[in-house]
Amino acid sequence: MGLLIVLSGPAGVGKGTVCSALRGKMPDIVYSVSATTRQPRQGEVDGVNYFFKSKEQFQEMIARDALLEHAEYVGNYYGTPRDFVDRTLASGKDIILEIEVQGALKVKEKFPEGIFIFLMPPSMEELKQRITGRGTESQDTINHRMNVAVEEMNLLRHYDYAVVNDQIDAACHRIQSIIVAEHCRSERVMPYLAESQAAIEKA
Amino acid sequence: MGLLIVLSGPAGVGKGTVCSALRGKMPDIVYSVSATTRQPRQGEVDGVNYFFKSKEQFQEMIARDALLEHAEYVGNYYGTPRDFVDRTLASGKDIILEIEVQGALKVKEKFPEGIFIFLMPPSMEELKQRITGRGTESQDTINHRMNVAVEEMNLLRHYDYAVVNDQIDAACHRIQSIIVAEHCRSERVMPYLAESQAAIEKA
């Protein structure tokens, strides 16, 4: 069985950038494809960029619990098809799901055996600077975003790992290390050991 | 706080070789120094190769629980001084302890927060070949060693990780990954986050 790796973290922390960099570094890992009701853009391919669905198809997927999580955003649905994840894991490959914090917690309810990685800003000070940095927002907007960020940071306790995104390469190296380490966890290796010992005893 | 990393595994699996290779690759990690009652050999330095102790000193260390584990081997005592481990961890450095499986389990009783890594042969078949390979042992000796090896392999369930020693570089890479990953575990990162948030709220 492969591992389900969920990469999440507060808005603005750089999930997408880190995930894109990982694709280049870990080509053997599968990247989850979301389902959406929004129209395909020029060049987007069904099953590669997204699984494009009608609103009726999407609602039917929700009804039969075919999505690990879903959300509505600017009038369109987005979600993670469970079937694609299941098939990838059953083929023995790892799959990475890059997702915002609320969605990640929903995935955890359905998939507690997943590896949940929380991408962190180097410091709360740094996150504050990223949020206020553009200098075009009102103080109210900044305060609101900062409160949301602090709330999102507090969700860290639901995750297995915290990876600081100080530099993209360093963050990728930590994530790669986590994946290697998780494959070495003794409870994953023991079933193979038992098979191997049984083979020896028969011989 | 640094991490205590315990590297163990069945006799003949190559713990010493892997640990030596790790020293070259991870110079920032401290390698535990054992205490012993055996005489120093030419060139051995007290506090570097071993802490050399008299039998009385060693027994006094046992009496005041100053050793994480100890054993007698060919008439001499060997043990792991707890003080050296504690001071290293308090200085913020990781420390690696390379030790046989029985000693590792004793360390776990006193230090359950350690990271316990079990070095494995690529297969039980391979371990059998290593044990029978020299061709100079009686069938009884081989059977005895194989039984011991199977028993030692069954101790894997007490460990956090299993690392296959198929190639030294590959085994070292897995161990390095485990150490990086363990430093990212969210329960280790959360205290720093709380401090950082408190600083932000005050500011």
Automatic annotation (TrEMBL), chains A, B:
For the ligand (ATP), the binding residues are 9-16
Pfam families to which the protein is assigned, alphabetical: Guanylate_kin
Q: Which residues form a coiled coil?
A: none
Q: Which InterPro entries does the record match to this protein?
A: GK/Ca_channel_bsu, Guanylate_kin-like_dom, Guanylate_kinase, Guanylate_kinase_CS, P-loop_NTPase
- Gene Ontology molecular-function annotations: GMP kinase activity
Q: Which UniProt keywords apply?
A: ATP-binding, Cytoplasm, Kinase, Nucleotide-binding, Transferase
Write out the annotated subcellular location: Cytoplasm
Q: Does the keyword Nucleotide-binding apply?
A: yes
Keyword Nucleotide-binding among record annotations: yes
Enzyme Commission code(s) on record = 2.7.4.8
Record's catalysed reaction(s): GMP + ATP = GDP + ADP
Mostly located where? Answer: cytoplasm
State the similarity comment: Belongs to the guanylate kinase family.
| NCBIfam families the record matches | guanyl_kin
The function of this protein is: Essential for recycling GMP and indirectly, cGMP.
Protein name, as recorded: Guanylate kinase
Kindly list the organism's lineage: Bacteria, Bacillati, Bacillota, Bacilli, Bacillales
